[in-house]
Protein 1
Amino acid sequence: MDKYSELIESIDNYIYKNFTAVDEYQKKVYESMTYSLFSGGKRVRPILGILTYKALSGSDDYEEILPFAVAVELIHTYSLIHDDLPAMDDDDIRRGKPTNHRVYSEAIAILAGDGLLNMSAEVLSKEIETYDDLAKVKKAIKAMKYIFTASGVHDLIGGQVIDIEYNDDMNYDICEIMYKLKTAALIRASVVSAGIIAGASEEEIASLEEFANCVGIAYQIEDDILDEELDQKKEKNTMLKFKTKEELLSRIEDLTIRANNELDSLEYDTTELKEFAELLMNRGK
Amino acid sequence: MDKYSELIESIDNYIYKNFTAVDEYQKKVYESMTYSLFSGGKRVRPILGILTYKALSGSDDYEEILPFAVAVELIHTYSLIHDDLPAMDDDDIRRGKPTNHRVYSEAIAILAGDGLLNMSAEVLSKEIETYDDLAKVKKAIKAMKYIFTASGVHDLIGGQVIDIEYNDDMNYDICEIMYKLKTAALIRASVVSAGIIAGASEEEIASLEEFANCVGIAYQIEDDILDEELDQKKEKNTMLKFKTKEELLSRIEDLTIRANNELDSLEYDTTELKEFAELLMNRGK
């Protein structure tokens, strides 16, 4: 991922900007929020947002998309902290480190998650407040609405509800819906919000949505396969319960083709975006 | 509170509008969200927002402020659900009913809280997306930023952090800071966002902030005194640990005078707002 180190640095710097001037009372919760924000996340979602923006705007200056890309990363991080809690997946380790609540207590982990979700709305409203052009403001509000719909009960949170509620009655189709909500939703939020800010048409947005859904589902299947190989997976709801590894690898291949087709349908140079998406969908290779 | 039943009906109807078209997977979390939204909350924050808006705009039509008033109520409700969790205050009863996690499980209660906070951002971005006038959009974004700053780590969430972190080392001054963050922050969010939407000047906003802080702190002290009398209070961080009831009643009197003075400094008819605020600050009488 060395190729993306400049992007990652910009993303990290933008995140850091929001953690200044903290007083005594908030130190611990800020520490807990930054612990999870800077513990090995690959910044997949913000990088996808930036590369989508660069492709569609034709510009190398991606400053405009950073607040949106970072907002999605804040939401992603909060969802991981809450998903790991004892009442949810009860995970002790994430990315090779103790989970947030193991380090900071359950109470602080819940509040740190709340703080990150809240901060995503703060970051976006602070940014949009500085705009003075109605067309620009309207695109930004539309992108913000898209992001918070994707992170809401019908998408991201709904996916976690399925994960909690379905056990013995889980099947392949519900599992696919779960992947679409739990994993693809925020990938879609990154990609589509970037498309909106870059001025994409409704038709182009539909292609970006389909592209992002394919990437998101393939990325999650790939994750499951890698976890299984590392033998780190506890008894969890994954497609490996219903299909063989070979069947799933062929599903990833289909999704990769569909994702590429959607990008090819766009009249932009999507080389960089395609390359990064393929990397995500085929990490095991 | 019969006098406010029309306002409460408008608020409740606006809340309901956001809970339609739910599919199978989300039913339980929607049920959990609406359980806490409709279990005896007095709609104090949205009513304060509406009355502030009516006073400053001079209009009886308060439709414009409803999304902001409701956003604050959604945030307030999520914070109660999360505060009641076993890892936090571990409360079994709220407003005479079982707390959310006692009815729906801890996992669903965490997700319902997340869903409500997320929904507040959805409600606001959906509303603002419909605006076509730059000045109106800019006021709305400013109000939104104010709300999410008040609900963030420096205010609302910070107040809960103090409640969790301070026990034997709690004192009167830190307790007052906690009340300002935990209780006054969202009252300030309601009142000030309404002022911003009604077009208040910076000076007027400063008066509204001071008014709301006084109301918020007095309201919390009143709450502690009433809880103590009902003998329902577990060992919690309240000012009654450090002052007598008489001292606190006299503090409420001071805060009431200061709140009224702030309203009197405004060149608007604030009779209705003052009457409601006095009701909140002196519920025991």
Protein 2
Amino acid sequence: MQDGIARRDADLWAHVESESSRRLLLAALDAFADRGFEAATTRDISRRAGMSPAAVYVHYRSKLDLLSEIMRIGHEAVLAEARDAMDGQQSPAGRIAAFVEAFSSWHARHATLGQVTAHELRALPPERFAEILELRRTTERLLAAELEAGAERGELHVGDLTGTVRAILSLGVDSARWYRPHRGVDPEEIGRLHADLVLRMLR
Amino acid sequence: MQDGIARRDADLWAHVESESSRRLLLAALDAFADRGFEAATTRDISRRAGMSPAAVYVHYRSKLDLLSEIMRIGHEAVLAEARDAMDGQQSPAGRIAAFVEAFSSWHARHATLGQVTAHELRALPPERFAEILELRRTTERLLAAELEAGAERGELHVGDLTGTVRAILSLGVDSARWYRPHRGVDPEEIGRLHADLVLRMLR
């Protein structure tokens, strides 16, 4: 499991083309998390990346480009991780537990990224906003389909489908807000607890 | 119920001494929600309040004073509302349902305030931070005590107390992030759904 996590953490930014771009994305992520997107400056981002302000523009046109890229990478990563986790599960309940475990532990493990992806959506221009919204809807549908399948089979109780999907995702998204590594729980424990609570909720 | 809600909404800011202070707090809340605390300026806040920048300083020493006051009012209000709702309930399960219904619907109803209180804690200086943290801990203990009481009586199943309390609060806190009035659900529905999901989770 440790190997898997380490691999995924590296993978998150590994497909970004150059080392400088990767450094800028991570610097921008820290700046957005610390001060909020609006208050973060290109100068601050370049300083955190150990580069000159002019060097930023070689790689990204603006801090909005950096935010868009961070949002895309974050949303794609959590969706891919949830899909991976569901693969090989034999029942709707098994796939729901795998989704929740992956989704919640991802948000704790990548708490800074999870906070920025959850809260800076408002800053995106309409085209980029639509792209991210589509990734979110795909993630929601992935979970909703299993709730529906479980209910149809009579294995799960689902009253309000949309509300229940939102509630399940809230457990994960909010973990990125409160999670701190020193609090004595690890991201995997949070994922397992949430999976257990969700299955109890649906039975 | 409608009367109760209208009364509580008015009450939220009613004890603030002057009409100008109330206007400034609401203007600051909007500015912090739109741009984040760091990016919001005193000039922007005064413009939203329809006052001169100098007039702000008659009432508040800084935008940090405005944030501290907003944080205190928000945290005290949701705690008071949860306590009120629990009063008169005869069992731990009843009090938990009442707490969850009040806590989640409050966060949807006051979504802007809920977002700012959840995410701008980092901006507070240590003394103010400690004051708000104590209000949060009191709220957590209020819920935790009922989970423990229900478990002791053998009426509720509680595995990981701290993790379960956090998960229940996450449902409410995250409602402030995603809730939009036009989405066709009202805050009270969200509260009732979450109360139902939580009781299922604990049985």
